[in-house]
Amino acid sequence: MQNTVKTLIAICTFSMVAGFASGNMLTNPSFETPVVSPGGFTNYPTGSTLITGWTVTGPAGTEASIVSTTFTQGSVNFEAKDGNQWLDLTGDGSNSTEGVSQSVATTSGTNYVLTFYIGNTTGGGIFGTTSTDALFINGTNVGNYENSNTDATGLNWEQFTYDFMASGSSTTIGFANRDPGGDNSNGLDLVNLEVGTSTVPEPATVGLVGLALVAIAFRRRQSASRSQRLG
């Protein structure tokens, strides 16, 4: 019986952890594909789906750019936050409201946590002083996030977090440039979407916990009866 109780408790613990654990739900979260030439960048126009998992959005004639982490311009080294590449939402001088979006399967009523990094440099006049991204959930602007940290020789990456409850079986995550026309650098990298941690166990887990408690109570009752007989 003691071994059975231990097994039940172990199963409950595993079920609760498994129910909460989740990996990144997004495809190509660090913009590692397609691979661009080392030290260079590649532009993707509005409507393009060539950035694996993502669709480029924005007005006609604008684009987003995948940039190599070894790209340099002037005195600035444009290193990625994660991997070998990152996304520049300003494109190659288009500087409008261009961006990217991706749709993922979700469960209505479930909490999700989205994290992402915005890269900013202050290494030259054409790069501006801040980097601001608009975040969209299913086409609705849920906030503008600004990285105003200074870095004259590279990209400073700042992480931002947004929690939301899914309203349907599919959710579209979108980002758009909010830098002014004269700012030619707005980094996005390491976008992560996971199921949010819940403090309420799943029904199956609740049942397992109840079964374990019953087994523990039964075990204690047996021990008490045995003690009384021996006494």
* Total individual domains: 2
- Summarize the helix and strand pattern as letters: HEEEEEEEEEEEEEH
Q: What structural class do the secondary elements suggest?
A: alpha+beta
Query: So how many helices?
Result: 2
Total beta strand runs: 13
CATH H-level superfamily of the largest domain: Galactose-binding domain-like
What's the Cα radius of gyration?
25 Å
| Rounded average pLDDT | 85
**Can you summarize the main beta sheet?**
6 strands, antiparallel
In short:
The chain has two helices and 13 strands.
What does this entry look like structurally?
The structure is a single chain. With 231 residues, the protein is of the alpha+beta class. It has two helices and 13 strands. It folds into two domains: 44 residues; 173 residues, Jelly Rolls. It is globular and about 75 Å long.
Feature tags:
globular, 2 helices, 231 residues, single chain, Jelly Rolls, 6-stranded antiparallel β-sheet, 5-stranded antiparallel β-sheet, alpha+beta, 35% strand, 2 domains
